[in-house]
User: What shape does this take?
Amino acid sequence: MIDIKKISKTYFQGTQRIEVLYQLSLKVEEGESLAILGQSGSGKSTLLSLMSGLDMPDFGSITLDGLEINRLKQDELSQFRAETMGIVFQQYHLMSNLTALENVGIPLELRKDPDYNQAAMDALKLVGLSHRLSHFPSELSGGECQRVAIARAIVGKPKIILADEPSGNLDDDTGKDVMDLLFQLCQERKQTLILVTHNQELASTCDRMMILQKGQLQLAS
Assistant: This one.
């Protein structure tokens, strides 16, 4: 499902060159869950941005579901992302002027799915928020906002879910509930899950754990 070959990524801070990733390779099977651990600043979020096509590697290739995404045009990439990926951000990234229902329906609206409203209602019901459809993000708790974000990520039944510290801003109990839900949904739908986290206990729930350090991925012991 995911085949990354020798990607490198460098940033510049002023005149300082910072090599975040160096010839990193990774293969993930369909339906597998993989946790990526690493210290703050190790490049975990950068790797997820590259995998989602929100950023591009300097070198190397990223193939998702048989398609090399770093060769796609921007409109092709946007379409592929909408159809194949669901992304859960640590900061939720909900539209403040849209209700929970409207936020969740966005991916399907972009795909011009005529049933987007019903699908969004079904997704919110799955995450236990069918009673909060008309509420705005400011009217929801942190846990509820993250559940809306998960509903938005799963509404189109994508093959790949990318989650960047999805429980990082939540208390332990709420974070566990949210992650249990995400794992359950991915297992039921045989979706591939890439989870970026600093939480070792959470990472151990995945099929496989890897550590990102010095620009490379290594198997976690």
Remarks:
- The CA atoms of residues 137 and 145 lie 6 Å apart.
- Helices lie at 44-52, 74-84, 100-110, 116-126, 142-154, 172-189, 200-203.
- The beta strands are 2-13, 16-28, 33-37, 59-64, 67-68, 85-88, 160-164, 192-196, 208-213, 216-219.
